[in-house]
Each structure stands twice: as structure tokens, then as C-alpha cells.
Design goal:
Length: 160
């Protein structure tokens, strides 16, 4: 929901090289680059050496790798990058919101109203509109406000 891992994780992504010294990944808060493999063809690949990996930095939490000495070879979907990413632990208010939301979902009482209903009418007369979650939100305004404060949405579009 927030676009970032709140605990350390591993991820493998396939991206297109651009021929520049910077490479944008669809992963925020990169901790370490594990490996990069360049696929020049579908069956031919070259792994980046440990020395070359040592020259790659992630100076900010924006998901952009920067090489001090070389460029990332241009090509369509030619680089497989393995990274460790995420926070050491979630911020306290995110942890608390997750616990609250899980408790809310577990204790959810089923009613006669379908979960996807937008409104319903009662026999005594009257129509009621239901609050619905939108986009990435949970539908709980308190939890949504916390998630919004901790969202790392860059607005970048990726093809994987």
C-alpha cells in the first residue's frame, strides 16, 4: 500500500538499461545491491563483478542506483537486479495501524448487506449509502491517514 517495505526484504527486478551511470529501480529504500546480470541476448549473460558492485551507490532512498565508474548497458529488459530493501523495522504508528486493521478485519461482523454494496434500502423506507474504500485505502480514515503519511509513491511507471 505504501510503496516501501517496512521490514528488510529481497527482490529481483528486470529493468531496461539506459546507457547512463544511473539506473532507476521500482524499489524504494534499497539497503544493498546483491547482484546485477546483463542479458545481451536471451541466452547470453554477464554478471557484474564484486569490484563493479562496490562502485555502485544508493545515495538516497529513491530507488536510483548510481555507478561511480561505469554505465548501465542500454537495452530493453536486459538487466536483472537483485536487491535487499526496506526499513529495519516499521515506524511505530504503522505497526500500530497494521495491528488495529488486522483486529478490525478479524472481528468483522457479517451483516446481510453484501460486502460490495454501494447502498441499501430498508423495509421501513429510506436508502443508506455506505462508505467505500478508494484506491489503495482501507476504508478506515484513521488508518488511511497514517498510511498516507508513510507512502513512498514516486509516480514512476515501470514495466516488469
Amino acid at each position: 500500500i505504501c510503496g516501501v517495505a517496512f521490514v528488510p526484504r529481497y527482490r529481483r527486478v528486470t529493468v531496461s538499461g539506459n546507457g547512463h551511470s544511473e539506473l532507476i529501480l521500482p524499489v524504494m529504500k534499497i539497503r544493498r545491491v546483491v547482484s546485477i546480470t546483463n542479458y545481451s541476448t536471451a541466452t547470453s549473460s554477464t554478471a557484474v563483478t564484486a569490484a563493479e558492485l562496490a562502485e555502485i551507490t544508493v545515495p538516497a532512498d529513491d530507488g536510483i542506483l548510481r555507478s561511480r565508474t561505469s554505465t548501465f548497458p542500454a537495452g530493453y529488459q536486459n538487466l536483472v537486479v537483485e536487491v535487499e530493501h526496506g526499513f529495519d523495522q516499521p515506524p511505530a504508528e504503522v505497526r500500530d495501524a497494521a495491528i488495529y486493521y488486522m483486529r478490525e478485519r478479524i472481528q468483522h461482523v457479517r451483516s446481510g448487506i453484501p460486502d460490495r454494496a454501494v447502498s441499501f434500502a430498508v423495509a421501513e423506507g429510506g436508502t443508506y449509502r455506505l462508505a467505500l474504500p478508494s484506491g489503495r485505502k482501507t476504508g478506515n480514515p484513521d488508518i488511511d491517514a497514517i498510511l498516507e503519511r508513510h507512502t513512498w509513491d514516486t509516480g514512476r511507471a515501470f514495466v516488469a
